[in-house]
Specification:
The structure is a single chain. By secondary structure, the protein is an alpha+beta fold. The protein is built from 14 helices and 35 strands. An 8-stranded mixed β-sheet has the order 28-29-31-30-32-33-34-35, with helices on both faces. It has a 4-stranded antiparallel β-sheet with strand order 1-2-3-4, with no helix packed on it. A hairpin with a 3-residue loop joins strand 14 and strand 15. This is Dipeptidyl aminopeptidase/acylaminoacyl peptidase. GO terms for molecular function: aminopeptidase activity.
C-alpha cells in the first residue's frame, strides 16, 4: 500500500496553533528561570494523589516496550522502536527468517520523531533539538552504518518528505534559502547529493505546497497569494508550462490527494474539494480539462479527505477511503481490500482497524487494532493464508475490562447550534454517582477535533474517578466548512460558550458533581483553560494551562519566520490587531489583561523551546498572577517544546497534575 510521509504540513501547523536549545548556564535559558517552581513544590503536589488505585501514572504514560512496527518493502525485515532501561527508544531491525536483530538507529539526547523505510536496505528518521521543531531528515543502513544528515543546515525545518519508490532518491521541502518559505530538493539518500528542483521567489505570494507524482516529477504547486488566496497551478504535460487551475479563498478546499496511476489518463487525480458543498468530499478529477469526472465518496455529516492506494503490484488501484465520523470509519473499495476488511472486521468486531504497513507485494500487512478501552495491539495479517497473528500488545498492563467508556455526545448550544463531543465516564458515574469532571478543550483551535478511541489522559483521569469532557466546539474541523468558519473571530467567546454548554449538558445528565469541575488543556486548550477561569470563574474548581497562549498580541509577535506568510489567515481566524475594534476584543479575550478575574487555583506548564507558543506566554501569566499575590505552580522543561515528548517529563507532569486536581477537589 502506498504510504507517503508529510512532516509538519506547514499550513496546518501554522493556522492550527524559535527558541534556542536549552543550555546549562541559567543566564542562557529561555524565559525567566527564576519563575520556575521548585522540585519540593511538585513533590508536595504529587503527594495529594493518594489512594488504593489499581493503576499508576506510569501504566498510562511510560512508553511501550516496543512500538511503531514497520515491514520492509521486500518483506524480509521487521523494524520497530524498542525502549531501553534509560527510556531511550532505539530503532531495531529484525530479519524475519533468521530472527537476527540489529540496532539501526540510536536515540540519544533528542527524540526520534518519525522513521520509516527508504528501500529494502535503508531507513530514514527525523529529529529536532529539544522540541524546537527545526526538523532534520537522516538516513541509515539497517545495520546502523552510513548514517547521514540529509538536510545538514542550521535553523531549517521541513514541511514535506516524499520517498520516490524504487530509486535512491527522496524529495524534501525545506526553508534553507529563506526561513519564511519552502523549496523542494531531490536528495540521494545514499550519498547525500542534493539538487534544488524549483525556486520559490516571492515571499509575499510564496509556493506553500508542491505536488509530485510517484516518479518524483513536479506536476503542480499551490501559491498563497497575499496570505489569503490559494492558487493551484498544474503542469501541461505537452508544453511543460504550469497553468492556473483554481483560484480559491483560503477558507475553501481544493487540493490533489494523489494521481490516479490506475488510469490511462495521466491528468486524472483524486481531489478533495468543498467548493460546491459544505462537507469536503473526494472526487476523481481531470486536471487538464479542469472538470470533475465523478464523485468518489462524500458523507452528509462529516468531511472526507483520506484515501489509500495500492502499489505497483496492484496497479495503484484505490483500496479504501477513511474519515473521522463519530468513530473512525473505513470504506473498502478494491476487491483486494474488501476481502481484507471483511476478514479483519469478522475477527475484531467493532474495534478500530488500521493497516499501518505492508510489503510491496501486500502479502504481510501490519494491522493495529484499538478501541476506547484498548490502547492498541499489532497483528500480522497474511493475505495468502488469510490468517492473523498477534505481534505485540502495546500496553498489556492496561486491562480492557478496567478501562472507562468513551461515549459520543451531542447537544444544542445556547444559540441553537448542534455540537458534538465525547465524555469518558468512570464506572462510578455509570453506577449513578456524581463524579468530578475534567473539561479538556482541544488545541488548534481550527481544523482540529477530538476523536473517539483510546486516550491515555482520559483513562488516567477515570482511574481516579474523574470523568473527562471533550467538546468539538465551533471552529473544530471535520464537520464542514460552515461549522469551522462559524468559530472564526469567536476564540475566547462563542467557542468558550460551546464548552460551557457542554459542561451544563454533562451536569444535566446526572454524571457530574457541579462543585468539582476542573479545566485543563494544551496549546489553544491552555488558552481556553485561562479563559474559562476568567469567563466563568464560578464554574470551575481549578485549571491547568499546558503550553497555552496568554496574550494574543505577544503570541502574534513571536511567530517563527516560516509562519509569517500565514499571518493574514491568522488575523481572520483569531483577530485583526490592526483593526481598533478587533484589537479591543483581542485585549478583552487575552487572559493576561484579565487576571483580576482569576480566582481559582491555576497550574502552568511549559516547554522552554516551544516555537508555536513561546515560553513568554506562560512567563507572563505566572508573573502577573504572582505580582498580585496569587501563587501559581509553574513547571518548565528545558529539553521540550510544544508539549512534553520525553517519558520522564510526561510522567512528572501527570503525577503533579493528578495531585493538583486531588488537592483542589478535596478542599
Amino acid at each position: 500500500m502506498n504510504i507517503n510521509t508529510k512532516i509538519f504540513g506547514i499550513t496546518t501547523l501554522v493556522i492550527s496553533s524559535i527558541m534556542m536549545n536549552a543550555q546549562t548556564q541559567t543566564s542562557k535559558l529561555p524565559g525567566d528561570p527564576t519563575l520556575v517552581s521548585t522540585k519540593a513544590t511538585f513533590d508536595k503536589l504529587m503527594a495529594y494523589d493518594k489512594g488504593n488505585y489499581k493503576y499508576k501514572v506510569e501504566d498510562y504514560f511510560a512508553r511501550p516496550k516496543a512500538s511503531q512496527f514497520r515491514v520492509s518493502p521486500d518483506g524480509q525485515y521487521l523494524s520497530y522502536k524498542e525502549k531501553d532501561k534509560d527510556g531511550k527508544n532505539h530503532v531495531y531491525v529484525k530479519n524475519i527468517k533468521t530472527g537476527t536483530v540489529t540496532k539501526a538507529i540510536e536515540e540519544k539526547d533528542d527524540l526520534i520523531r518519525s522513521y520509516g523505510w527508504l528501500d529494502k536496505k535503508r531507513l530514514f528518521f527525523t529529529q529536532d533539538r529539544g522540541g524546537n521543531e527545526n526538523i532534520h531528515l537522516y538516513a541509515a543502513d539497517i545495520d546502523g552504518k552510513n548514517l547521514k544528515d540529509l538536510t545538514p543546515f542550521e535553523g531549517i525545518t521541513l514541511n514535506m518528505v516524499h520517498v520516490i519508490k524504487d530509486t535512491p532518491f527522496v524529495i524534501v521541502a525545506m526553508n534553507k534559502n529563506n526561513k519564511q518559505i519552502f523549496e523542494p530538493y531531490k536528495i540521494n539518500f545514499n550519498t547525500g547529493e542534493m539538487t534544488q528542483l524549483y525556486e520559490n521567489k516571492d515571499v509575499n505570494s510564496p509556493i506553500d505546497n508542491y505536488i509530485f507524482d510517484k516518479d518524483g516529477n513536479l506536476r503542480g504547486y499551490g501559491v498563497l497569494e497575499n496570505g489569503l488566496t490559494t492558487k493551484l497551478y498544474y503542469k501541461d504535460l505537452q508544453t511543460g508550462k504550469f497553468n492556473l487551475l483554481k483560484s480559491t479563498d483560503w477558507k475553501d478546499t481544493f487540493y490533489i490527494l494523489d494521481f490516479n496511476e490506475n488510469s490511462g489518463n495521466k491528468d486524472e487525480a483524486y481531489v478533495v474539494t468543498n467548493l460546491d458543498s459544505d462537507k469536503s468530499r473526494i472526487v476523481l478529477y481531470d486536471l487538464k480539462k479542469n472538470a470533475v469526472i465523478k464523485e468518489v465518496y462524500s458523507n452528509p455529516d462529516f468531511d472526507v479527505s483520506s484515501i489509500s492506494l495500492a502499489g505497483k503490484n496492484r496497479k495503484y488501484e484505490l483500496d479504501y477511503i477513511s474519515y473521522n465520523g463519530i468513530k473512525n470509519e473505513t470504506i473498502p473499495v478494491s476487491p483486494f481490500y474488501k476481502e481484507v476488511h471483511a476478514k479483519l472486521t469478522s475477527e475484531f468486531g467493532d474495534k478500530q482497524i488500521s493497516v499501518v504497513s505492508s510489503d510491496d507485494k501486500d502479502q504481510q500487512l501490519l494491522v493495529v487494532v484499538d478501541s476506547d478501552k484498548l490502547y492498541g495491539k499489532y497483528y500480522i495479517y497474511d493475505t495468502k493464508t488469510k490468517t492473523t497473528k498477534l505481534l505485540f500488545d502495546l500496553m498489556p498492563q492496561l486491562k480492557e475490562e478496567d478501562m472507562a467508556e468513551m461515549r459520543p455526545i451531542e447537544f444544542k448550544s445556547r444559540d441553537g447550534v448542534t455540537i458534538h463531543g465525547y465524555i469518558t465516564l468512570p464506572k462510578e458515574a455509570l453506577q449513578g454517582k456524581k463524579v468530578p469532571l475534567i473539561v479538556n478543550p482541544h488545541g488548534g483551535p481550527q481544523g482540529i477535533r477530538d476523536d473517539w478511541g483510546f486516550n491515555p489522559e482520559t483513562q488516567l483521569f477515570a482511574s481516579r474517578g474523574y470523568a473527562t469532557l471533550q467538546v468539538n466546539f465551533r471552529i473544530s474541523g471535520g464537520y464542514g466548512k460552515e461549522f469551522q468558519k462559524s468559530g472564526y473571530k469567536q476564540i475566547g467567546r462563542k467557542a468558550m460558550d460551546d464548552v460551557e454548554d457542554g459542561v451544563k449538558y454533562a451536569i444535566a445528565q446526572g454524571w457530574v458533581d457541579k462543585d468539582k469541575i476542573a479545566i485543563y488543556g494544551g496549546s489553544h486548550g491552555g488558552y481556553a483553560t485561562l479563559m474559562g477561569l476568567i469567563k466563568t470563574p464560578d464554574l470551575y474548581t481549578c485549571g491547568v494551562d499546558y503550553v497555552g497562549v496568554s496574550n494574543i498580541f505577544t503570541f502574534f509577535d513571536s511567530f517563527p519566520e516560516y509562519w509569517k506568510p500565514y499571518k493574514e489567515m491568522v488575523k481572520q481566524i483569531w483577530y485583526d490587531l490592526d483593526n481598533p475594534e478587533e484589537a479591543k476584543i483581542a485585549k478583552e479575550v487575552s487572559p493576561v489583561y484579565q487576571i483580576d478575574k482569576i480566582k481559582k487555583p491555576l497550574f502552568v506548564v511549559q516547554g522552554a523551546n516551544d516555537p508555536r507558543v513561546n515560553i513568554n506566554e506562560s512567563d507572563q501569566i505566572v508573573k502577573a498572577l504572582r505580582a498580585k499575590g496569587f501563587e501559581v505552580p509553574y513547571m518548565v522543561k528545558y529539553d521540550e517544546g510544544h508539549g512534553f515528548g520525553k517519558e520522564k517529563n510526561r510522567i512528572e507532569f501527570y503525577k503533579s497534575m493528578l495531585g493538583f486536581f486531588a488537592e483542589n477537589f478535596n478542599k
